[in-house]
Specification:
Keywords: Hydrolase, Metal-binding, Zinc. It catalyses: an S-(2-hydroxyacyl)glutathione + H2O = a 2-hydroxy carboxylate + glutathione + H(+). This is hydroxyacylglutathione hydrolase. Belongs to the metallo-beta-lactamase superfamily. Glyoxalase II family. By secondary structure, the protein is α+β, with helices and mostly antiparallel strands. The chain has one domain: 4-Layer Sandwich (Metallo-beta-lactamase, Chain A), CATH 3.60.15.10. The strands form 3 sheets. A 7-stranded mixed sheet has the order 1-9-10-11-12-15-16. Strands 2-3-4-5-6-7-8 form a 7-stranded mixed sheet, with helices on one face. Strand 3 and strand 4 form a beta hairpin. The protein starts with a helix and ends with a helix.
């Protein structure tokens, strides 16, 4: 198992370079994708184009979120509901099961392993209808083909920009598209940087964001295939979303991210308080994900390049572009 972002980064970097020759070592990942266009006959009605928005290891855990359809409204109301179940996988991955209770439609985001996902589905009596992939890394697509064999009618949804590296992809989505899970609209952002084809899923009615490895609690993904300017552009799309949005990222990196964040923004009282809460949770073996986007805006140094304190600690002044400050923070984290 890969137990730190830096170790995982070195592994994934070498893996990405060797992906085209690694079929024998990683057969699921290297299987040629079975592209059937942008949608199957069953899913075509659930797929359309829309304008971009303006604006612990341990047992699985579920939460149900309700939200107003208004982007800036409170997380209450009866317009829609999404049940989200955390499924820990590998050493630090979180896979997310999503269920729209009115229709009973169920999806899984970035399934790393088969057995934890199937066990949780069986425990709840759910049948899988869709697989949502954010990017091609093996710890996000590792169970695609096995789940498809187990649930033949489920659709595999993934980034159009990276269709050749998503095992079994059937529904290709990208910036401005939306897909439906029952009555709930799932909007798509292109968020390249960690990988060139990374996407993020947002369920506005439920105030739920699934950013894969683009955004972490108190962190962001390493830049394997993108530039700092590109990654900052991707993160800026997420910054425009409402503060109440819950961020269901894909890894439990928060404690390590908090230690680094304190070196960049040491005089931020909200960050200091959050670090104490994170450390206390991890000491008890509790998960620190999801967070809220409001928390991330206030405490995540990768989302705060405009803060004078962050600029000062990075040795950059007011004339520097935000993406340049972000680049300095990302480079510092890579060395941390």
């Amino acid at each position: 198992m890969i137990r730190s972002e830096s170790c995982r980064a070195r592994y994934l970097s070498s893996f990405c370079l060797a992906a085209t020759t690694a079929a024998s070592a990683f057969p699921a990942l290297c299987t040629t994708a079975a592209i059937r266009g942008s949608a199957t006959s069953n899913s075509r009605a659930a797929f359309r184009s829309c304008a971009p928005p303006r604006c612990t290891r341990g047992t699985s855990t579920s939460t149900r979120t309700h939200a107003s359809t208004a982007d800036c409204g409170p997380m209450t109301g009866d317009c829609g509901a999404l049940e989200v179940v955390r499924v820990p996988c590998l050493s630090d991955n979180y896979v997310w099961l999503l269920r729209e209770p009115t229709s009973g439609r169920t999806a899984v985001v970035d399934p790393a392993e088969l057995h934890p996902v199937v066990s949780e589905l069986e425990r709840r009596g759910w049948v899988l209808d869709a697989i949502l992939n954010t990017h091609h890394h093996w710890d996000h697509v590792g169970a695609n083909l096995d789940l498809k064999r187990r649930f033949p009618s489920c659709d595999i949804v993934g980034p159009r920009a990276d269709k050749d590296r998503i095992p079994g992809i059937e529904v290709q989505v990208g910036e401005g598209d939306s897909w439906h899970l029952g009555s709930l609209e799932v909007r798509v952002f292109d968020t390249p940087g960690h990988t060139r084809g990374h996407i993020t899923y947002w369920v506005p009615q439920a105030g739920a964001l699934f950013p894969g490895d683009t955004l972490f609690a108190l962190g962001c993904g390493r830049l394997f295939e993108g530039s700092p300017r590109q990654m900052w552009s991707s993160l800026s799309k997420l910054l425009a979303l409402p503060d109440h949005t819950r961020v269901y990222c894909a890894h439990e990196y928060t404690a390590a991210n908090a230690r680094f964040a304190m070196t960049v923004d040491p005089d931020n009282p909200q960050l200091a308080d959050r670090k104490m809460r994170v450390d206390a949770a991890r000491a008890k073996g509790e998960a620190t994900v999801p967070s809220t986007l409001g928390e991330e805006k206030a405490t995540n140094p990768f989302l705060r390049p405009g803060a004078p304190s962050v600029r000062k600690n990075m040795g950059l002044g007011p004339a520097a572009e935000d993406w340049e400050v972000f680049a300095a923070v990302r480079a510092a984290k890579d060395r941390f």
